[in-house]
Design brief:
single chain; alpha+beta; five-stranded antiparallel beta sheet; 24% helix
Length: 204
């Protein structure tokens, strides 16, 4: 919905421009047309990163924000103090995260440009990502499993974070798992332990 609305609006703007020129029976110079198309394309691209909806609309819940923004299926939502992280999967293969931020009367779309992350990918097939949005941190883990011995049976970190599990059955009979937690803090000593094995984000 997020991308579709922007594309539709800018197509309408392009059509209006062409109709106005036709009614005025004014021939568009080639250079003018090229400049307009370039400007139109740049503004369209920027609109995907600038949530103009925040100026005039407030969502009731973070779920409504993610339903509006997501191109795929929402696996789950991890709540922080002043924001929420939405976990999604697209076409059974691509994962992404979105951010919603609290406002006085509800929730607004968070700018993903400010959603920074640190990644550990070589963890026995499990990808671990720590996200930072302004002063809040989240940690996520995701992997695919088609056997019982691949499952995560025990997970904790050194910040006493509360991990939530989200899963989705895939077409090939394997299961996509994702875990998420809000971090009270994050520093160079952060560790996460999965099935008895501890991983560090920063090597000494």
């Amino acid at each position: 919905m997020y991308s579709t609305i922007r594309t539709i609006i800018f197509i309408i703007i392009l059509i209006i421009f062409l109709v106005i020129c036709k009614r005025k029976k004014k021939k568009i110079k080639r250079n003018t047309a090229i400049i307009f198309v370039i400007i139109w394309g740049v503004i369209l691209s920027l609109s995907y990163f600038l949530s103009v909806e925040n100026l005039f609309y407030t969502f009731k819940t973070p779920e409504k924000v993610f339903e509006y923004m997501s191109k795929g299926e929402i696996l789950g939502i991890v709540d922080g103090k002043d924001s929420s992280l939405g976990l999604t999967v697209i076409d059974n293969s691509t994962t992404s995260c979105m951010i919603a931020i609290k406002s006085e009367n509800g929730w607004k779309i968070g700018n993903s440009l400010f959603l920074k992350h640190a990644l550990i990918s070589d963890c026995d097939g499990i990808s671990i990502i720590v996200y930072k949005y302004k002063e809040e941190y989240y940690v996520t883990l995701f992997y695919r499993a088609n056997t019982e011995n691949k499952k995560i049976y025990n997970i904790y970190d050194n910040k006493d974070s509360q991990f939530e599990q989200f899963s989705r059955k895939l077409d090939n009979e394997s299961t996509y798992y994702e875990y998420g937690a809000y971090l009270n803090s994050f520093d160079s000593n952060y560790t996460i332990t999965i099935n008895g094995k501890t991983y560090k984000f920063f090597n000494e």
